Amino acid sequence: MEFRAYNACQEEKAGGGKKYPVLRGNFMQPGAFKGYSAEKMKSHLQTMYDIGIDILVLQWSFENTSEGVTNVYYRSSFESADKSSAYNASGETLLGNILEAAEAVGVKVFVGLNNNDEWWEKAVSDKAWLTAQAELGIKGAKQLYATYKKQYPNAFYGWYFVFEMYNTAATREMMENGAYLLNGFCDGLTEIDAGMPMMLSPFLSAYGTEPEVTGQQWKEIFSMTHFREGDIFCCQDSVGAGFITVDQLDGYFKAIKEAVDTKKGLHFWANNEDFDQASWGTAPLDRFVKQLQISDPYVEAHITFAYSHHQHPDMGKTGHHEAYKYYYENGNLPTYDLASPTVEYEVGREGVSIRGTLPNENKGAMGFRIYKNGELLKLINLTKDYGKSLLSFNFTDTVAGAGSVAYKVCAVDYRYRDGAYSEFTVNG
To answer: What range defines the domain where residue 180 resides?
Structure first.
């Protein structure tokens, strides 16, 4: 198989070569995009291609339960026996539109197969269930290959293994079952086309095992798997999900890199998470760039979950997109000089009603923070108001408290740093 390893620091790629870590790829979950036409998807992909993102991972192309297939996002040919009573083909044009757009833009697509949420209950405990998932996944893969590969030979580039494995206090049987599931997909995909790489993206948890144990577990699993030369182990850094801290990241990636090196031909990429589980919003750019920098010495490329959802203008994230674009083009973080907002307040029966406004002239503000007696009371994310001439908010502190209460209000930039404060005190 021919597969060119990619080094994020040294090689040329879409948008030009960089000496600092940047994104090459992005995840997309199908539900949010099933209404996109090919032309709209082309615009979506072009926006990312212009900042070096030339790989798209469609996280899954169909969904199923133990009863059968539920939702499909391609022109499937599942038999009636494969379909559940909840079968839904309303999104069947999505993958075709993605591949048409990707072929035109120059993006390589890794197509995810079946997604079954029962995984989060069963994981690797039920071998019969694992067998059924692999068999159904390969059945779908054969349909996908027959339908799209000849039409979109460059865009339809690889496969994505949907089931997210994770480090835990695993028994030998659990590791054997994990390898069994991986081999069910690897062997089936090899029969379809041995030249198309498969990517998997397990996640990490500092609450699972220590880095050294995690590395040893993956070494054992790798020793039992049938990975082909060119397959990609693209580990989630799990910082966005809150399972690991930035400070813990280096130790885990170092251990996993040593494990990957024991499997000939297996590539190691990073899936750096660009969201913040605490708010389910976009991560501060400072933190995200730090994740790239820490994982970069160990990996060949960086992708993210998920630029399409958390940083793309189509999702109202124009400011976040332009902040990352600045980093991509310059190698350093943008700076903003945010004025203090104009604040009005009123004390009433409901509490303290606060209204803040800020002219958005430098377009650096993504929201506001309100502090109460020195403690953060509220972060107001206004990223969808990007480009408006005036940013504003209304908020009521319904538990204002007794006695003297001091408030501070400031704008927040795309690095989640505070601008200048406006302050006032309410006497109860």
So the answer is: 25-330
